[in-house]
Backbone:
């Protein structure tokens, strides 16, 4: 069976791959996983506990599990893998805050630098996948505990996989699978139609009603995701330090038009970074929309509209907007923003980049960025808020440093009571929305199209688990 994905990874090393390919392809597994209803549950760890409000955690690692090279999985192997993850990943080092790890057989004891009441949910992240750290060529052939082991990795093209016969969690139905890549949505649809792919992730949305949904040989699955398309504002840009400028740009985002004309109604307008059904979501977004509101905000920021240009201190407002094409709707949203901004007198130059994560974190030569993030992959607000809004956060590309917001997030991270956590997350989100530190645009559906011969496909809202032991095809 061939699965065609929309991101092209540079490596299969789960501790360095922002595309999470090893976990998505069923090669690697984590201590904890997220269920379809966004609840954390045991995976390689069968249980865990803390006795001091989240400073020290004890994990019992399942017995009778082997890596795909036959080596036994025990607490020491888990420790080595987690240590490598925090050594390899700045984001994981910041997120996990591990001070010390001790092992005894299948018992792993982790002491943190500070109490983290929701620490197990951090171990859902695919960058914490447990691998044999002593294996050679981890970038091309990581050795995990999952239902499939890697036969070969052709960078930019595909991963060839084979069933791991001694998989610990029961029968693996597929003998072989290919996890292939193509960032061109048209090409993914063509591959499904020609039979060279059996499942395609995120087909071109315009193709749903015209071809895929009308052909009985294909099935389409669309479920609400915990992903949000966002507009980031680089806080190192002097103009964008003024929240009135950010609010002016936000008012130009016609979310209803984006949902209908660009997303083909496979999305919901966002009122914040989190889906509204989450108890920690603040849904009181800025209601002011349209050109009159945008002009008022620019006037508050000291701009005048002269000869069709927004000018302050003799300089016209010109901004660069960075995005990427592996989510094909993002460049279209960028063009809509560009068109609306031009009407307001703001020049926006669009730049497409390949590795947006690395580009945004490493460079300051961008002003706006259309970006997409899984904001609540564990059913909790802490990860997104910490990674994106704390100074030094692993995903804080906007360089946000807001003392009040920082204190809220730090308090959230040390709070045990769920009701209090939800309230603190709401307050933090309200501040983000109120100061327009980030514009939340839409929550896209996860759309997957597949051949009707595919059996047991499940679209997981976290987007973490794709090739599973249950996946099958009829001859």
Residues:
């Amino acid at each position: 069976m061939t699965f065609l994905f929309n991101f092209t990874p540079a490596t299969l090393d789960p501790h360095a791959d922002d595309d999470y390919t090893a976990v998505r392809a069923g090669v690697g597994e984590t201590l904890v996983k997220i269920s379809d209803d966004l609840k954390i549950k045991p995976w390689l760890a069968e249980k865990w506990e803390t006795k001091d409000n989240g400073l020290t955690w004890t994990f019992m690692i399942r017995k009778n599990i082997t890596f795909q090279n036959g080596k036994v999985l025990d607490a020491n192997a888990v420790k080595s893998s987690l240590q490598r993850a925090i050594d390899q990943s700045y984001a994981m080092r910041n997120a996990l805050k591990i001070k010390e790890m001790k092992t005894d057989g299948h018992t792993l004891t982790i002491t943190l630098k500070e109490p983290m009441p929701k620490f197990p949910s951090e171990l859902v992240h695919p960058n914490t996948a447990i691998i044999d750290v002593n294996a050679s060529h981890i970038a091309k052939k990581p050795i995990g505990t999952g239902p499939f082991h890697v036969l070969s990795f052709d960078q930019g093209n595909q991963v060839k996989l084979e069933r791991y016969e001694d998989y610990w969690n029961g029968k693996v139905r597929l003998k072989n699978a290919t996890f292939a890549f193509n960032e061109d949505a048209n090409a993914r649809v063509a591959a499904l139609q020609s039979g060279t792919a059996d499942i395609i992730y995120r087909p071109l949305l315009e193709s749903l009603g015209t071809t895929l949904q009308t052909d009985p040989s294909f099935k389409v699955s669309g479920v609400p995701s915990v992903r949000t398309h966002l507009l980031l504002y680089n806080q190192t840009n002097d103009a964008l330090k003024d929240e009135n400028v950010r609010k002016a740009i936000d008012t130009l985002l016609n979310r209803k038009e984006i949902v209908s004309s660009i997303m083909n109604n496979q999305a919901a307008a966002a009122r914040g970074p989190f889906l509204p059904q989450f108890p920690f979501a603040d849904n009181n977004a800025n209601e002011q929309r349209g050109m009159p509101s945008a002009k008022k905000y620019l006037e508050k920021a000291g701009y005048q509209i002269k000869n069709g240009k927004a000018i302050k201190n003799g300089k016209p407002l010109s901004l660069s907007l960075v995005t990427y094409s592996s989510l094909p709707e993002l460049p279209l949203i960028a063009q809509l923003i560009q068109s609306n901004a031009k009407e307001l007198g703001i020049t926006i130059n669009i730049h497409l980049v390949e590795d947006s994560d690395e580009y945004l974190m490493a460079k300051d030569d961008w002003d706006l960025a259309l970006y997409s993030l899984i904001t609540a992959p564990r059913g909790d607000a802490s990860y997104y808020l910490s990674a994106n809004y704390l100074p030094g956060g692993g995903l804080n590309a906007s360089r946000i440093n807001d003392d009040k917001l920082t204190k809220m997030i730090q308090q959230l991270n040390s709070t045990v009571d769920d009701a209090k956590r939800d309230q603190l997350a709401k307050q933090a989100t309200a501040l983000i929305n109120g100061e327009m530190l980030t514009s939340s645009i839409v929550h896209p559906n996860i759309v997957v199209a597949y051949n009707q011969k595919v059996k047991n496909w499940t679209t997981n809202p976290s987007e973490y688990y794709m090739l599973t032991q249950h996946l099958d095809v009829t001859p």
